[in-house]
Specification:
7 strands; 30% helix; alpha/beta; 4-stranded mixed beta sheet; 166 residues; elongated
């Protein structure tokens, strides 16, 4: 009896969100050390730090601006930091690594023409080795559902059905 790999012979299309993972060093820039007593932003001192800092060390990095103290940071401070980071960094955000990954995946998914999945059965790969945020899966479903004939989650051998067009 011949063994037939039905998964390999199926028309099922696998989508792996890891394929859209943006490679690059992720760096947190904590501004607390530039605050008076870690809590108060003095504009002149802050601008001096910005002016005298070597921003080239963030070349081609994803930079997350952050303040690890309970200080209230005015919006212009993050904007000012972004102006000096923009010539070097791939991307600058205010937030956490989770926020960064969500933004990067959202941008990547915006570039895809999902009409290529028209009337096709699709499986969204579940396990990942890279940090794929839950919101990336949600965005993917919203973008692919108008086209796909069916959507499943997991692996072809053990998938969970999510959607089937009527």
């Amino acid at each position: 009896m011949e063994i037939v790999n039905r998964v390999a012979n199926s028309k099922l299309i696998t989508i792996d969100l890891e394929d859209w993972y943006q490679v690059g060093l992720r760096t947190v820039f904590d501004i607390k050390d530039w605050l008076f007593e870690g809590l108060l932003l003095r504009e002149k001192d802050f601008r001096d730090h910005v002016r005298n800092y070597d921003w080239s060390q963030y070349q081609d990095q994803y930079v997350m601006l952050h303040c690890s103290t309970d200080a209230i940071i005015p919006g212009w401070a993050y904007m000012l930091l972004t102006t000096v980071l923009t010539p070097y960094a791939k991307k600058v955000i205010v937030g956490s690594s989770k926020d960064l990954e969500e933004i990067l995946y959202q941008e990547a998914l915006e570039q895809i023409d999902f009409s290529i999945y028209q009337d096709k059965p699709v499986i969204v790969k579940g396990c990942s080795n890279k940090p794929v945020p839950e919101n990336a899966y949600i965005s993917l479903i919203q973008k692919i559902q108008p086209y796909a004939k069916s959507i499943m989650y997991g692996e072809a051998c053990s998938s969970v059905p999510l959607y089937k067009r009527k």
